Amino acid sequence: MGVRPQNAHPALVLFALSVGAFAIGTTEFASMSLLPFFARDLHIDAPTAGHAISAYALGVVAGAPVIAAFAARLPRRTLLIGLMAMFAIANALSALSPSYHWMLLFRFLSGLPHGAYFGVAALVAASLVPIEQRTLAIAKVMSGLTVATVLGVPVANWMGQALGWRSGFFVVAALAVATVTLVALYAPRDAGDPKASPMRELTALGKTQVWLTLLTGAIGFGGMFAVYTYVASTMIEVTHVAETYVPLVLIIFGVGLTLGNLAAAWLADRAQNRTVIGVLLWSAVSLALFPIMAGNIWTLGIIVFLIGIGGGLGTPLQARLMDVAGDAQTLAAALHHSAFNVANAIGPWLGGLSIAAGYGLVSTGWIGSALALGGLAIFLLAITLERRQANFAPAAAE
In whole angstroms, what is the distance from residue 199 CA to residue 106 CA? Predict the structure, then answer.
């Protein structure tokens, strides 16, 4: 545990960390809405431009475990500053991309700090408060990402249209620089962990509960992305509304995501396992209702809001990883965001297969519901094994 400067307050630290989350959330989601603009400017078609989105996700998946394992010995404050500085530079370079291939490289580099930043930020947030408040503290940091879907993404999209797509990435770089400044001012100073090493962090990979928790997120979260990815197309082709309604519905989704994140965290501080089970059941039901409610703009808005609330799954799972990771806290926390991006790949892929097979755009709801139930099955297995192990340990001691 580091010693917090006297002029620092937990609320200021959480705000500083949430600004970084806002920057990351803005670039992650806004890149999708800026895609038509940089595709046209770089003389590529939309499917090819989509590889830039995949390059970012690949950077997240690759960067989170590598950075977390090899930088675990560094003071967390120093690591957070370094990660955000790297994020700022990579996004500024993305804005300056002279060609498609340079864009791919810079988006990959932009993704590298993503998972490690969130993992370390979650550990710092949890260290600031009593253990019975840690999940809510993590949620306050993550609220930066969820608020980005409400404010950051629409603003970046508007700037992309009014000032050119490059301005959207420059804004993200500026937010990252602001995060560096705020973290330097307010984050707790710590001496790092001299006992930390890549080998100690890698012990997380030998823990069954770590893998089952990560799989719960990778599968269970995939359901939300299965619908979110195709919601704009569903609105235009199924609901039959003008494209101008799409940003409004995405904002409604973001409001649901923000409220779900805070509510699930509050509940998880009181009953962690029950909260995870409840959120996955909520997601399974709301996603299953999507095909029924997608035909009308009013009912669509309601169900998209309810699906967004299911996004509160992430924070309780992040807290659970802290419980089951032992000494490998940094790697386990960072891997959570790799799992999140695996979900971001699995959901749209399975949804796309269903659409291509002729089941229609609304079938993504059924795919999403099945994924949520799959995540629930994995989590129930995890807590069953955990209880058996707990029961076996006293018997073995006797």
Answer: 30
CA pair distance 366, 318, nearest whole angstrom: 26
Which candidate, 88, 94, 119, places its Cα nearest to that of 108?
A: 94
> DSSP characters for 319-354?
HHHHHHSTT-HHHHHHHHHHHHHHHHHHHHHHHHHH
What is the rounded end-to-end Cα distance, in angstroms, of the chain? 36
90 vs 76: CA distance, rounded Å: 21
Distance CA 119, CA 129 (A): 17
Residue 112 binned pLDDT confidence (cut-offs 50, 70, 90): very high
Q: Residue 189 carries which DSSP code?
A: B
CA distances from 141 to 37, 123, 189, 312, 388 (A): 31, 11, 18, 13, 34
- Which residue, 114, 107, 100, is CA-closest to 20? 114
**Residues 324/327/329/332 CA torsion (nearest 10 deg):** -60
Give the tokens for residue 3.
């010693």
Cβ(365)–Cβ(287) below 8 Å = yes
DSSP 213-273: HHHHHHHHTHHHHHHHTTHHHHIIIII---GGGHHHHHHHHHHHHHHHHHHHHHHHTT-HH
The torsion region of residue 43 among left (phi > 0), alpha (psi -120 to 50) and beta comes to: left
pLDDT digits (tens, 9 = 90+) for 113-156: 998 899 899 889 988 989 888 899 999 998 998 888 888 877 87
What pTM does this model have? 0.82
Residue 197, Ramachandran bin (φ over 0: left; ψ between -120 and 50: alpha; else beta): beta
* Residue 3 bridge partners (DSSP): 189
Phi, psi at 133, each rounded to 5°: -120, 5
CA–CA distance, 137 with 12 (Å, rounded to integer): 12
pLDDT in tens, 313-351: 988 998 898 888 877 777 777 888 888 888 887 888 898
